[in-house]
Design goal:
Length: about 450
């Protein structure tokens, strides 16, 4: 019998309610809208005010017991359904036995009926689980709801604006400087060296990349880009220049740096590759293959340290060799397991000596007493300085060690690498292949055209 009923599921945990005062309504509205648009008959199940890590969710249980009725279980995001890999897998197998799939309307690659979708499901579950226990939970869903109301969510200042009553408002002085800079850039026909000299003289920021970010910032024509997405919000940030001025600068940028500003370039490892010499992040570029001396349409990607080529002579780096994307990928596919074991050993050596929190407290008390002695004129300034430096060095070394220890938990990555990821890897879309690398790897260091070390998540 063909089933044509679906179940919608929403959840808000006690932690989310307490921290964000977030109600269940935003989820309900989104799900109802989705079902109406797709002409689906639905039942709504709601769990409210239960701890995020708890399995005791009465509405969910009720829904699972009636799984035979439903074609699909629909929720907004995977973390609403479950944040625990094992529970989620148990639930999915119950659902599969009842011929029922799951769908996350805000994550369109979640579809448990295919091998690819199942892999992504597992991957995302491992990521969601990693989030539990972090002190600040990222709940983009709430943020998006706030953003559509025009409220500033991150509190981060944008140059050209102030944040007043949670809204971006034009800062006239800064906005004028930005407009003048755009006009200057146009008047020098996009000469990047001249532009950079102007930029460091007129703005508080000094890096070349911050200049190009400013020149490409669509906020200045009233469009706010959503993080990690190719979506823009209107009416969130006020415009400070005309489309005409902005677009003429974009045209010049493309003409001057055709390789940098291609809009649709997809780089598998962008953000992950670092210079082993100067520790800065590599930039990604593309080139076109030649055949019989003629340039073809097919492109190759490579990465390089930006510093040898910076117009500012203060930044220089000897690591000039580039590395091809396919070489990085091949290296990772062949060596990720050994690299991971190497990394595990290196971090376990580092954290062998456990930090004694008592020792930190003692040092802090000593520092305070030392200051009292000095303030009461019982020791000389020189003695104070010498002892202070000594104690303070010990203290900061301990604190550094402490923070390094709390960071290291490789169990999720270990699980991921122990999964059969390499079987499905080749059949994944490039987007999902990238997601896989991002979920396991934090940094890949390169020197002289080859991988030197890898830092895992
Ligand atoms: Zn470098």
């Amino acid at each position: 019998m063909e089933k044509n009923l679906v179940a919608c599921y929403c959840r808000v945990s006690t932690e989310e309610q307490a921290k964000f005062g977030f109600s269940i309504d935003a989820q309900k509205t989104a799900l109802t809208k989705y079902c109406k648009e797709n002409h689906l008959k639905f039942d709504m199940y709601v769990d409210e005010g239960i701890s995020a890590s708890s399995m005791r969710r009465p509405a969910l249980q009720k829904m699972l017991n009636k799984a035979y009725l439903y074609k699909t279980i629909i929720f907004t995001k995977l973390d609403r359904f479950s944040r625990n890999v094992k529970d989620a897998n148990d639930m999915v197998s119950i659902l599969a036995r009842n011929n029922c799939s799951i769908k996350a309307i805000d994550e369109d690659d979640i579809d448990t009926t295919t091998a690819d979708g199942m892999f992504i499901f597992n991957l995302k579950m491992s990521l969601a689980q990693r989030e539990i226990g972090k002190t600040s939970e990222r709940i983009n869903f709430v943020f998006e709801d706030k953003r559509t109301k025009g409220e500033v969510t991150s509190g981060k200042k944008k140059y050209g604006y102030d944040i007043i009553n949670k809204k971006y408002t034009i800062n006239q002085n800064e906005a004028d400087s930005v407009v003048k800079f755009f006009e200057f850039f146009k008047s020098i026909n996009g000469n990047c060296n001249k532009a950079y000299n102007y930029y460091i003289d007129h703005f508080p920021f000094k890096s070349y990349s911050s200049m190009t970010r400013m020149l490409r910032n669509k906020s200045y024509i009233g469009l706010h880009k959503l993080k990690y997405q190719d979506k823009y919000l209107e009416n969130y940030v006020p415009r400070i220049m005309t489309d005409e001025l902005f677009n003429s600068v974009q045209d010049l940028l493309i003409k001057k740096q055709p390789r940098e500003s291609r809009i649709n370039a997809f780089y598998m490892f962008s953000g992950l590759i670092y210079c082993d010499e100067c520790k800065n992040r590599f930039v990604a570029r593309y080139g076109l293959y030649k055949k019989d001396g003629i340039i073809t349409d097919s492109e190759y990607h490579y990465y390089l340290c930006p510093h040898p080529y910076k117009p500012n002579p203060k930044f220089t780096c000897n690591n000039k060799k580039t590395i091809r994307e396919e070489n990085i990928e091949e290296y990772l596919l062949n060596n990720i397991r050994t690299e991971f074991d190497k990394y595990k050993v290196s971090v376990s050596v580092k954290s062998e000596r456990k930090v004694d929190t008592n020792e930190i407290a003692i040092l802090e008390r000593k520092l305070k007493r030392l200051k009292d002695l000095y303030l009461d004129d019982l020791i000389t300034k020189e003695d104070y300085k010498k002892d202070y430096e000594n104690l303070n060095n010990k203290l900061s070394a301990l604190k550094e060690q402490e923070s390094a220890e709390t960071k290291i938990d490789l169990s999720t990555t270990e699980k991921l690498l122990n999964s059969s990821w390499n079987i499905v890897y080749k059949s994944l879309s490039p987007d999902n292949q990238r997601r896989f690398w991002l979920s396991a790897i934090d940094k890949v260091y390169i020197n002289n055209g080859s991988v030197t070390s890898i830092v895992f998540k």
